[in-house]
Amino acid sequence: MPRAGRRRACRLHPLPSRNPFVNSARFSVALLFLVVAGCASDPAPHEQLRLSEQALVQARAVGADAEQTELALAQGKFEQAGAALAAGHHKQARMLAEQAELDARLAEAQLLTRKSNKQVSEVEQQIGVLRQQLGEL
After folding, report:
1. Could you tell me the sign of the dihedral formed by the alpha carbons of 79, 82, 87, 89, in that order?
2. Is 80 exceeded by the pLDDT of residue 40?
3. Please, which pLDDT band fits residue 105 given cuts at 50, 70 and 90?
4. 29, exposed or middle or buried, with CB in 10 Å at 0-12, 13-18, 19+?
5. Which domains does the chain have, with CATH numbers?
């Protein structure tokens, strides 16, 4: 039976060390882990650059060209993102790559909307011609 007032350490939870060297070593190790984790928190945005490039290719595939403002903006931001990545500015590169992807998708959506509106106008015109022909009967 343990004596009253005496603390007993278990195997899983040992008593804290009273040795100042051990405490400072633990603090140093913890600080080192925090520094390493802080430096590794912003990885290179290679995947985002790939997605941006894919969005640019897709926009061109549906017929967008460099004359379209949004596509030109997307291309410029994509090139800036590549330069920022090469300079080691990962956060800026990621942000520019995301903007490039969104601009390319916007260019694609605007082009598809214009094409759809043109098709709707053509169908409405054909319907008008058919109504005239039916009225003549």
Report:
1. positive
2. no
3. very high
4. exposed
5. 46-115 (1.20.1270.390)
